[in-house]
Every structure is written in structure tokens, then in C-alpha cells.
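Sequence in, structure out.
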Amino acid sequence: TKGLAEIYGIPVHHTPANAKTLDGWKLPGKDYDLGVVVSFGYFVPSEIIHGLKHGAVNVHPSLLPKFRGAAPIQHTILSGDDVTGVTVQELDDKKFDAGRILAQKTLVKLKSGYSERERER
């Protein structure tokens, strides 16, 4: 996604190096239409979300609401699920992966019948 943004001249901003939270962080510049986060481990404060004209969306590598939070791909495999996909959802300003689901796409049919040993790896 970063590569496509750069091709189309869409600004890409990174979180501060070594930051543990985004508390007190401000977006560089102003007047942004939409925020997009992908595999993003920070909670985005409400002042950032509400400062964007159309809010923000999250691209999450699971079929939410199942496997909210970190490591959704690993949790899908460990649970023995045979299907996974991607969800695009609104970013919630109070909880991780809890915003309104805008789109979902089933992308991968996993091998069924993982042995207990394979799941433990």
C-alpha cells in the first residue's frame, strides 16, 4: 500500500521512531481527507481520527470480528480455520478492530486438517 501511495503522490507518514504510543503526536501538515492504516500496532487517538475529513479506515488481515487484535493470521491457523481474508473497517476511537465493517473479502482457503503438531509450530 505504501508503494501505491507513493506512485500516486499520496503522502505517507510514519509514526515517530521508538514511540510506544501516539499520545501527543500530531499529523504533519493539515487538511487530510482520510487516514488509512495497515497492520498498525498503535491505537490512534480520537483527535487524530476526528481531525481527518472522512475519518480513518483500517485494513485488517482477517475476517473481523473474528481474530481482532494482533497476529490474526497466526490465530486463524492455530484455531484450525480453513478460510481467511481481509476486512476494511472504520477506525474506532475507543477500541482496536471494533469499527463498522465496510468491506470483506475471503482471499485464502487454507489447507484443512492441520495436525496438532503443525499448529504448535
